[in-house]
Amino acid sequence: MAVNTQSDLAETNRLEAFSDGVFAIAITLLVLELHSPELEEGERLWPALLDEWPQFAAYLTSFAILGIMWVNHHSMFRQIQRADRGLMFLNLLLLLWATLLPFPTSLFAEHLKDDSINANVAAAVYSANLTLAAIAFSLIWWYVLRHHLVEHEMTKSQTRRSVMRYSMGTVIYGACIGISFISAQVTLLIVFLLALYYGFEQLRTRD
Amino acid sequence: MAVNTQSDLAETNRLEAFSDGVFAIAITLLVLELHSPELEEGERLWPALLDEWPQFAAYLTSFAILGIMWVNHHSMFRQIQRADRGLMFLNLLLLLWATLLPFPTSLFAEHLKDDSINANVAAAVYSANLTLAAIAFSLIWWYVLRHHLVEHEMTKSQTRRSVMRYSMGTVIYGACIGISFISAQVTLLIVFLLALYYGFEQLRTRD
Amino acid sequence: MAVNTQSDLAETNRLEAFSDGVFAIAITLLVLELHSPELEEGERLWPALLDEWPQFAAYLTSFAILGIMWVNHHSMFRQIQRADRGLMFLNLLLLLWATLLPFPTSLFAEHLKDDSINANVAAAVYSANLTLAAIAFSLIWWYVLRHHLVEHEMTKSQTRRSVMRYSMGTVIYGACIGISFISAQVTLLIVFLLALYYGFEQLRTRD
Amino acid sequence: MAVNTQSDLAETNRLEAFSDGVFAIAITLLVLELHSPELEEGERLWPALLDEWPQFAAYLTSFAILGIMWVNHHSMFRQIQRADRGLMFLNLLLLLWATLLPFPTSLFAEHLKDDSINANVAAAVYSANLTLAAIAFSLIWWYVLRHHLVEHEMTKSQTRRSVMRYSMGTVIYGACIGISFISAQVTLLIVFLLALYYGFEQLRTRD
Fold it and tell me: Where does the source fall among the domains of life (chains A, B, C, D) (predicted)?
């Protein structure tokens, strides 16, 4: 069970290639949610574009999140030596939430400036999508540890720390669901800063 | 004819990579069929989203089906050692039905709540698409066996069982075309449960 | 110049992978040009779908053409041992016409049933796109022969025959531009049959 | 730090594969911004298509730019032997501007024929996107040199020349932002000619 045969590697590679493809497509499809402003006769383009800032803020945030997810997926799978069908299905679960993201992104962009509760609901739906993705990441890691699919031996404390790390995302994005009902715009800012933080934190600790 | 040269492998690999690409794109494009609800002045977002449940149900089902198709394709091609042009064209036939799926998915989502026969027709079109994909899978497997493109010798009973297995999908999805005219919603539920069942069944028997 | 180093191979591989990606995406995007029929109150879905047959015919034809183009690209590049920048740019020219195809496809689908000259113009634009793709294929092959990028020595008659083969497509699709002005529907049928013929002919002669 | 282990190579390969995927998708998505002209009763298709020339000019230009960016990315990464997380994030920055391009492309196409300042603003937004992409290219190269991630030793003058080369794009596209306010159409022409020039210049100097 523990021997790393070439066929196992092929399995992991094809899984990674498929996931890379899905991340690459999802990140590129985000642009289709950006729409040129419809101008009335004599209306200026520049202020109309500025007025669309929620679109661009949501685009940028989702791009950052999918980018980080791809980097994380990458880091995680470098430590995985074998892929079995259970892993394939949990990975599909993660990809489900990744591919869905353009939908709440456009929902968020559309309602970010609403005065009503709709802005909060849109933010909560967006945060829920991120929370579900974080849960899927945790499930994959838990499964991988439980079925000894990692490449190297890990000490108990290393294992605990790695599990903590992945649970973190679930807690933080879960909290964002609550924050959504305080302010949609603050939620977007927090989510964006989190993506930047994760990026830099990884820069610092992992190389 | 039976020697597995490096060029044969390259051929299979490029075929798999192309197919993986198509599956990854088709599964990611599904999200483009999800539309934000258009709200009237003062309308609430949350009930409007809940009201769109057929969209999400159809999205989830098609995602599950394309995911399973990818896993199946993967399992099948791991047993194939050589790709010739006949296999390439039958594979294109399968990809035709896979890439078409977003269309009946959006048709299904749009008409699932109709009271009229239109809901049944949409369900039948959706089921027909799945049946055609199942037939393509069977054709590929039949072609592969007939032209001795599998990696290993199979006993007669193994061959028969593997052919049965792939024919199963055709029969079940074919039956769904009929069930569509009883209830569109039951059809969607059956198709979704089938995808889950296939997922778990493979988890159990194949590793 | 003639030595096949590993770096040359890497170059060809990345070129093929990029092209495969573009073909896979273009073939999958075709589905976005299929639109659910907009029904009036009480209108039946089934006849409305049947009424949309030009959409499906154009979809099927473009799918077949892009599929064949992928197979052809595949066959051609298996014979090429090195990629230089000239080849990369000619390949981009081919990809330009491949990625553009969804546009004339939707134009064709929209106007196929028009009684006016518009149906003929749409068919001519579609045929012109195919002609330009065929010319790009010829240019690639001519460039490859001229710069000795093929894997093996070819006799003069083999060279001539291979050039003829690729020029064929240009002549035939060029003729379709003319036929478009006789009948748009006949043009679509011819183009579809040609794709099938190319498929089968390759089945017969190349394995 | 300088040893080129297999895992470093794997890292670069997956980075390149992901980037190739994103470029391939972005270049193929451009076609979705082309819309069939909506004809009034009895209107001719051919003049309506000709009237849409800004769409096609913008499509062609963006296709050329993304194609050149892919070739450049390719050339750059062939010289890079290791990828660390810093490089991954700078690469994501570049991909951000590459995936965004379809949006200013459609903005440009829509307003190119406007008599008002809107045409200039659209051209400036388009040029700004290109400038940001050029800056990302420069940042990557600067980072790669600073962290000794290149494959081979470079002399000081080689280093200076390579940095100059990449800074060039930033200056030229930056100048296009200014030119946009003189004439949107001239800007499009310059950008297109630049893409051609870069293509041919590379043909000449790099093989």
Answer: Bacteria
Contact B136, B73 (CB under 8 A): no
- Higher pLDDT: D58 or A3? It is D58
Phi and psi of D2, rounded to 5°? -95, -5
Subunit contact A21:B16, Cβ cutoff 8 A = no
The radius of gyration of chain C's CA atoms, rounded to the nearest angstrom, is 19
Distance CA A166, CA A198 (A): 12
Q: Does C199 touch chain B (CB under 8 A)?
A: yes
User: Nearest by CB to D106, which of A17, A27, A36?
Assistant: A36
Looking at residue D7, the DSSP 8-state letter turns out to be H
Pick from C117, C21, C132, C106: nearest CA to D25: C21
SS3 C80: strand
Q: Is C47 on the interface with B (CB under 8 A)?
A: no
Question: Rounded to whole angstroms, how far apart are CA atoms D14 and D18?
Answer: 6
Q: What pLDDT, on the 0 to 100 scale, is given for residue C4? A: 43
CA distances from C179 to B64, C62, C131, C175, D21 (A): 44, 18, 13, 6, 38
User: What digits encode the pLDDT tens for the residues D79-128?
Assistant: 888 888 789 889 999 999 999 999 999 999 999 988 889 999 999 999 99
Cβ within 8 Å, pair B99-C199: no
Task: Taking residues C169-175, report their average pLDDT.
Answer: 92
Q: Which residues, including other chains, have CB under 8 Å from residue B193's CB and lie 6 or more apart?
A: none
What is the total count of domains within chain C? 1
**Structure-token pair, residue B101:** 């799926």
pLDDT digits (tens, 9 = 90+) for B100-126: 999 999 999 999 988 889 999 999 999
pLDDT band of C201, cuts 50, 70, 90? low
B12 pLDDT higher than 80? no
Show the domain range for B31: 5-205
Complex ipTM tops 0.90: no
H or E segment at D177? Answer: helix D156-180
Q: How far apart are the first and last CA of chain C?
A: 30
